[in-house]
Amino acid sequence: MNIHPTAIVSPKARLGANIEIGARAIIEDDVTIGDDCKIQANAVLTSRVTLGARNLIGYGAIIGAAPQDFAHDESIVSEVIIGDDNVLREYVTIHRGTKAGTVTRIGNGNLLMVGVHAGHNTEIGDRNVIANNCLLAGYVQLGDDVVLGGGAVFHQFIRIGNMAMVRGGTAWSKDIPPFTVGKIINVVCGINAIGMRRKGLSREARLDVKRAYNLVYRSGLNITQAVEQSRTMTWQPEAAYFLDFVATRSKRGLCAARGADAAVTAEAED
User: Fold this and answer.
1) Which residues in the chain land under pLDDT 50?
2) Could you tell me the CA-to-CA distances from 157 to 3, 144, 165 in Å, in that order?
3) Is 12 exposed, middle or buried (0-12, 13-18, 19+ CB in 10 A)?
């Protein structure tokens, strides 16, 4: 264990084996740090934060601070739980849950670049790449293997499906379906075929996702009709996941598609 003499580490913190804590870092009560983690200079881990193994917390990152929610009561206990093998670069901020007993959760193998913010009660899956200065508001749900371009911002309560890819500098207030590419605000522009191929999805799986996408966005059916028709058909697991995502209604509705049938676009904008 290597703790810089200027670091402030609570005696109540639980520290794993072979960890490093840099200069002027602050580790407060009820923080748990797993084995082989590295906490760089000026980082702050506050309140009830749990880190798994082999995480890097970058310079000046603040993990576990109070949510930016007027309804939050400072007396309640909530958490941030982070899995294994994540890299959280400089000045990343992650806020704890806003209600008693709730969690802001980060999975495994994620890269959060400089200045990323994850608001209260966000859920981030595994192996995501979130580029500089992305802002995820409260209750955003991010799947696995997603790529978010720098400076993109995401409204509270939206969902982003597995292997979606989002252009930098855009703003989103509707659900982004899995395997899609988002280039225009609240509009997807086709399937992330290159990303799926790089992740090892078979040609058959990729083609089936495209078939599901076309049923939802290109068939002339509205979303309800497309989902009903999909249930009479056979699908690969990835396409079935796409259709389940579309069928699950959320607070924000579903992104439209560029050039999609007007009925689908209108329903997506409700």
Assistant:
1) 261-270
2) 39, 17, 18
3) exposed
- Cα separation, 26 vs 134, in Å, equals 25
Of 142, 240, 241, 246, whose CA–CA distance to 188 is shortest? 246
CA pair distance 102, 47, nearest whole angstrom: 13
The C-alpha atoms of residue 148 and residue 232 are separated, in whole angstroms, by 34
Question: How many residues would you count in the chain?
Answer: 270
Write phi, then psi, for 243 (nearest 5 degrees): -70, -35
Could you tell me which CATH number the domain at 2-157 has?
2.160.10.10
Superfamily of the domain at 196-268 = Udp N-acetylglucosamine O-acyltransferase, C-terminal domain (1.20.1180.10)
Residue 231's identity, in one-letter code, is: R
Greatest Cα pair distance, the chain, in angstroms, is 66
**C-alpha 102: how far from chain center:** 17
Single pTM value for the model = 0.93
What distance in Å separates the CA atoms of residue 181 and residue 267, rounded to the nearest whole number? Answer: 20
Residues 6+ apart with CB under 8 A from 58: 40, 43, 87, 88, 89, 90, 91, 92, 114
Domain boundaries, the chain: 2-157, 196-268
Residue 266: count of CB within 10 angstroms of its CB: 12
What pLDDT sits at residue 258?
86
β-sheet bridge partners, residue 82 = 51, 106
